[in-house]
Amino acid sequence: MLTIEKLENGIQVVLEEIGYVRSISFGIWVKNGTRNERPEENGISHYIEHMMFKGTENRSARQIAEEMDALGGQINAYTTKEYTCYHTRVLDKHVKQAMEVMSDMLLHPAFSQEEVDKERNVITEEIYMYDDAPEELVHDCLQDSIWRESSLGMPILGTEETIANLDAAKIRAYYEKNYHTENMVLSVAGNFKREEMLVLLNHYFGRWQAKAPYCPLETKASYHQSWIQKKKDVEQLHTCIAFEGLEREHPLKYAMAIFNTVFGGGMSSRLFQKIREEQGLTYSIYSYTTAFADTGLFFHLRQHEPLSGRGGI
């Protein structure tokens, strides 16, 4: 059964007891992503996600990795346009140790300048990696153009120029402003007892207090018709078409999901059957939806040979 609770400091908690498993998954969801960034700090949300694993006031990056590996647990994180998630999965008997490590990462990050400088190179390589993957880049280019007048249009990773200007002081200031009890949700699913888990969560997270009032950056995204192309020295052409879609809580979101399944959401869809199976015109073709707080998109992607000359996206 799923229950929604609040910790002593107001952090919202979502619990789901699943008694027939022997593991527990734990997630920290922070309502902070690219949308919360100003142009000059683009990429800082993703930068912070990386820095959470680079050491705390009590542990080095190596100790974090070794402690979680010793438990046989999984730990990871990701950043999106609107939120950042840190998550772990361990055996139920190891949840206390895992939560101790996760709370230390979240509440006591070191943000040392030395580690910031080293991680800048890692993130730069990540930017290069995506630039070398046209099947990924084509989506980002189109979204950047469609949302070009708002922070929603900025890349999640930032750019070489913006991340070059970030230092430990800027990262800590942004973290203290945007990581807050008012914009955070903790989720736990697996083999536990509700009362015992609330005691554990309050112990590790319930006494934390943010250093400043929560003042989110207000942004409004507007859909703009766009056309963009980027030449790449590759063998295939990646074509992406996007239509204005539905926001996350729109009453027709389930109807949209069904339509997407029929249109291009799987191997039995019309796009796949007509274009690939019957005509043999492409290797990969599909559609999908993406939804944000106040807007959304409906995508159709096709990967095929260029009509003439070298490929592109």
Features:
313 residues; alpha+beta; six-stranded mixed beta sheet; three-stranded antiparallel beta sheet; 10 helices; globular; disordered C terminus
Structural overview:
With 313 residues, the chain is of the alpha+beta class. The protein has helices at residues 44-51, 61-70, 95-107, 113-131, 134-146, 160-164, 168-178, 194-204, 253-264, 270-278, and strands at residues 2-6, 12-17, 23-30, 74-79, 84-91, 184-190, 237-244, 284-291, 296-304. The strands form two sheets. Strands 1-2-6-3-5-4 form a six-stranded mixed sheet, covered by helices on one side. Strand 1 (2-6) and strand 2 (12-17) form a beta hairpin. The longest helix is centred in the middle third of the chain and has 19 residues, at 113-131.
- As a percent range, the share of helical residues equals 25-40%
Shape assignment: globular
Low-confidence stretches: 307-313
**Main sheet: strand order:** 1-2-6-3-5-4
Helix/strand structural class:
alpha+beta
Query: How large is the count of helical segments?
Result: 10
- First and last CA, distance: 46 Å
